[in-house]
């Protein structure tokens, strides 16, 4: 026991490590706030050198020391503590520790309202953590609070143009995940309007994300022709996006969604009509491009095979279905449904 508390072995080890981290902090003279600032400054410098874990340990150690030494009546200390929690939360997010990040950000939101009101990053970070963790209701609340803070302050409105642009996207994406596609579409349209107030470079970066979620919203509302049109617009924007937005899974998902929307749009037209044929041809072409770019994926070949089968090209479909069964992502034993489709193609070919 220590100080009236029962200490288990893990607690003792943790407390020992925490004290060791605090000993690494600058032992400067001054108030608790000044000493905390010195610790946070060293943590930032450590981060800039690429030592993420060490920087996090220093940040959290500086916070612990400040809580021990300071007073809740010290307004300067409260500002510093809020900043420290924001830094720690941001670093935790970079490390993928979304739960731990949320603890820091919620601590700041609940205990330092003045600091939080002056910086939208607290609510935005909390919203991002909730979204990743799947708590969509709280994510939406945090993003909405962030939007209120930014829009109610002329200083913040002018100082955070990028945030003004991405917030409607985040809110729209969250609403879409909650099944509220109509509201999502409204927010995404407001993102387009907001984009007119920022510079062209920011718009070029944000436009693909806006179009992506607009198309998903329209697909969810079964507006398949409109969704196809928007997926097509996306194709014209991706060349202007930074490399980080051109991750393989982003492009793969886009092409798959595009093919799916074209097939569904064709389904709303009289089968065999010129409109049906033109839409299915577009679907088959997008599916071909999908297999060219992601030829190792069975689902890519499957989508292409289904398009060719619908168009009556049994031979082309058969070749694609066979590639599905040997694809890298095929389960042991292959896909039973694909074996059935392969049999259908063989029957058609006599």
Automatic annotation (TrEMBL):
Alphabetical list of Pfam families matching this protein: TPR_8 (PF13181)
Compositional bias per record (Basic and acidic residues), positions renumbered to this chain: 1-17
Xref: InterPro entries: TPR-like_helical_dom_sf, TPR_rpt
Region named Disordered: 1-30
Protein name as annotated: Tetratricopeptide repeat protein 38
Organism: Hemiselmis andersenii (Cryptophyte alga)
Taxon lineage: Eukaryota, Cryptophyceae, Cryptomonadales, Hemiselmidaceae, Hemiselmis
């Amino acid at each position: 026991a220590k100080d009236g508390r029962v200490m288990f072995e893990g607690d003792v080890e943790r407390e020992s490590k925490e004290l060791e981290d605090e000993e690494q902090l600058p032992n400067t003279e001054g108030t608790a706030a000044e000493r905390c600032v010195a610790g946070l400054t060293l943590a930032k410098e450590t981060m800039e050198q690429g030592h993420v874990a060490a920087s996090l340990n220093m940040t959290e150690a500086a916070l612990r020391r400040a809580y021990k030494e300071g007073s809740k009546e010290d307004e300067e200390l409260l500002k510093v503590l809020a900043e420290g929690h924001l830094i720690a939360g941001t670093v935790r997010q970079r490390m993928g520790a979304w739960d731990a990040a949320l603890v820091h950000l919620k601590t700041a939101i609940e205990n330092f309202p003045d600091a939080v009101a002056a910086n939208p990053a607290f609510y935005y970070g909390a919203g991002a953590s909730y979204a990743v963790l799947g708590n969509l209701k709280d994510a939406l609340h945090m993003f909405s609070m962030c939007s209120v803070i930014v829009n109610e302050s002329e200083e913040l409105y002018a100082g955070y143009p990028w945030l003004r642009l991405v917030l409607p996207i985040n809110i729209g994406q969250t609403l879409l995940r909650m099944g509220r596609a109509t509201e999502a579409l409204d927010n995404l349209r407001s993102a387009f309007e907001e984009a007119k107030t920022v510079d062209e470079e920011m718009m070029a970066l944000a436009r693909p994300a806006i179009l992506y979620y607009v198309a998903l919203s329209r697909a969810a509302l079964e507006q398949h022709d409109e969704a196809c049109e928007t997926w097509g617009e996306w194709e014209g924007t991706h060349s202007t996006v930074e490399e980080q937005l051109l991750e393989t899974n982003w492009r793969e998902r886009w092409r798959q969604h595009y093919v799916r929307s074209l097939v569904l749009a064709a389904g709303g037209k009289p089968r065999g009509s010129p409109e049906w044929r033109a839409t299915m041809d577009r679907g088959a072409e997008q599916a071909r491009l999908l297999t060219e770019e992601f030829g190792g994926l069975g689902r890519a070949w499957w989508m292409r095979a289904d398009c060719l089968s619908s168009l009556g090209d049994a031979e082309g479909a058969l070749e694609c279905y066979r590639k599905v069964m040997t694809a890298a992502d095929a389960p042991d034993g292959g896909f039973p449904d694909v074996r059935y489709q392969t049999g259908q193609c063989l029957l058609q070919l006599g």
